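Pasting as-is:
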Amino acid sequence: MAHNSPIYIRIQDKIREGIADGVWKPGERLPSENELANQFSTTRATVVHAMQGLLSDGLIDRIRGKGTFVKASPIVTQVRTQELGFFEKDLEGSNLTVEYRLLEFAPAPLTPALRKNLQLGEKAKIYRLMRLRIVNGKPLALEIRYLEASLAVSLSHEKLAVMAIQPLIEQQLNVKIGTIHNQVRVTLPGTEIASVLEIKKARPVMVRRHTCLAQDQTPVLWGETFYREEYEIQYSSYRGK
């Protein structure tokens, strides 16, 4: 955690790490705003600002008169499919065009959560990939993804500007994706995400958190994609024989 970061960012990082490391479990009450203000030698207003960011990210819930809590574990339903797919493949045959705007592809700090999700050692290095997905000339989704530096440096910046990430990994890294784990939730965007997607902060976004595993079940990529509210997912369920 960088000590020259703004205090509200340091408060957010401390709480994020505590949640990721299990210091505070789902549904558990967090320290009060006054307690955090004393701990970080700052004002209650700064703590409120920090907590608002965590609330927008869907990490916490605030209950009037009771306090602030780690967001409870969601009710999960599993949708099983027989084929690995991705957004661009699903659009094949449509008259929609998909473009990318590469916003960032650079080394990033290795947080405890990223180390856990990518199953990396403490000294590992990672890259962060941020791309804006544009459909028919309009921003639709913001991709924020992480992968180990030894893999990232082999990816072409030119290809990152024109290709979906799954086929790009398979073609350029010769790594066959065997499994993709997905989690979907709805939240309110922070200032940066709302600005990139050209929406108001009061408009909800759908977030798809995903982990791509190689055929030997080694994590290759972890990240989140934030979709504008007009995007929807359709799927069908079938009765087994």
